[in-house]
Amino acid sequence: MNKEILNTGVQDFIAKNLNTDILSVLLKKPLFEGISQKELAQQIEGRKKSQNKLPVWFNTPGVYYPTRLQLEQTSSQLTAEYKSRIPNGNSLIDLTGGFGVDSYFFSLKISEVEHCEINPDLSEIAAHNFGVLGAKNIKTRPADGLEYLRNSKRTFDWIFLDPARRDELKGKVFLLSDCLPDVTQHLDFLMEVSENVLIKTSPLLDITAGLRELGNVREIHVVAVENELRELLWVIQKGFVAEPLIKTVNLKKSAEELFGFRISAEKSASSTYSEPSGFLYEPNAAILKAGAFKTIGVQYGLNKLHEHSHLYTADQLITFPGRRFRVKKVLPYNKKQIRALKLSKANISTRNFPETVASLRKKLRIRDGGEHYVFFTTIMQGKLAVLLCERVS
């Protein structure tokens, strides 16, 4: 961490050059004594990225930004705020603290937070930023979190960890056993130190596989932001043996879409089916990831178009955790009839359909965008159908 970067003149330059081409900054001769152009570019790039991802950091003077990869790996402000609602109590230790976004939001709810980060430079950056953010109840530990926890002989109300999802070749990995640390090898120890463990994993991790590897899971939170999957959160409670609750959330700027269910309820539920009627409903990405394919229809009184299409329909417009559409036309999948619609531009989606969006666009010469929404899907009796719709806000 180069503290020269915190000088007022340098900070002013960073603020005024957020939209400057980074390559042009790198190619210039050093502008400030004691600061390389690479370091300057890192701060400009980091601050610009934080504008949408981490507005609290962006709006706080004197924040120091880490490398691009370290910033990419951190939670967004929206997901960190949501995550902070889960733990309670007086103490929490973050074993894989990183840039410190999760630790900061935990500190707003929990009186004592310890932030462990094995990278000493990143630990120093996080400690500095906690200071400028006014987070006085966070202690930073530049150490391996598990090793520190074993040596400290302390207990905590909660343990949080976000295992690194990259292997030695920097490729992404999605199995718990491929992450660092491998939490499955340390759960017994963690349960000796705390009654509660919160684990963040990749959204691509298979939920069934995760349940096999992890014991005592009380809740699984499937988190999306603006309908894009971001993370799975596993709440593990010592001695918990009942069936876990799966909570899905789609975080949006204006609202949150929440839906919860249990796997046993999904297995026992029975879907009803019908042809497309007045309105079409598409569950958000968190619900689809969680596999609530039958319970979502049952709870909202909707009919499915087909067992594997995961699109739902009803005659009436209802509040729903996902996208809603008014059905304008239903056509068989027939190139001539589709072209008769004279669609030069449309938003195309496929659900349980043998062709890709790209191939359909090429074949039908339909550009992306516009007000029309077209679903290519399979409906009752295995028929391929095309649904021309308009979005309902």
TrEMBL record:
Keywords attached to this entry: Methyltransferase, Transferase
One of the Pfam families matching this protein, by short name: PG_1098_Fer
Matches recorded under SUPFAM superfamilies: S-adenosyl-L-methionine-dependent methyltransferases
GO molecular-function terms, A-Z: methyltransferase activity
GO terms under biological process: methylation
Domain THUMP-like: from-to ranges: 322-391
InterPro entries (alphabetical): PG_1098_Fer, SAM-dependent_MTases_sf, Thump-like
Domain PG-1098 ferredoxin-like: 279-321
Protein's name according to its UniProt entry: Class I SAM-dependent methyltransferase
